[in-house]
Amino acid sequence: MLLRILFALSVAVALMLLLWLLRGVMLTPVRVGVNERLAIVLTVCGPAPELENTVEALLWLNHNGTLRAQLLVRDAGMDSDTRHTAELLERRGVVKLIV
Q1: Tens-place pLDDT, residues 15-27
Q2: Other C-beta atoms within 10 Å of 89: how many?
Q3: What is the DSSP annotation of 25-71?
Q4: Same domain, yes or no, for 88 and 44?
């Protein structure tokens, strides 16, 4: 009985590792040419309380090498709180704010 439990546990762990590897394959890094640069433009209008979370997620992709791109935030009528958040992100050097 103990051998069956250990075998089932090892199969489950092997399956989890296989799924983790497949996830890594799906996040294949974006490759750009020699004279090319990527820029992600986030167009924000109105209130966007999730702006910082969105930028942090894109930064995670940038730091792990999956998506090397400059982050630009375009103001398309964002509210004052969102504008303040975007300005703080710009001061940190994380994004460039486009008015």
Answers
A1: 999 998 887 777 7
A2: 20
A3: HHTPPP---TT---EEEEEEEE--TTHHHHHHHHHHHHHTTS---EE
A4: yes
Asked if 15 and 45 sit in the same domain, the reply is: no
So what's the pLDDT on residue 67? 83
Is the entire prediction scored with pTM above 0.85? no
The pLDDT of 67-88, averaged and rounded, is 94
Burial class (CB in 10 A: 0-12, 13-18, 19+), 61: middle
Q: How many domains does the chain have?
A: 2
Task: Based on the fold, state whether residues 2 and 40 are members of the same structural domain.
Answer: no
Largest Cα separation within the chain, whole Å, is 67
7: containing domain: 1-30
Is residue 41 predicted with pLDDT exceeding 80? Answer: yes
Q: The tokens of 89 are what?
A: 């992100």
- Dihedral sign of CA atoms 20, 32, 56, 76 in order: negative
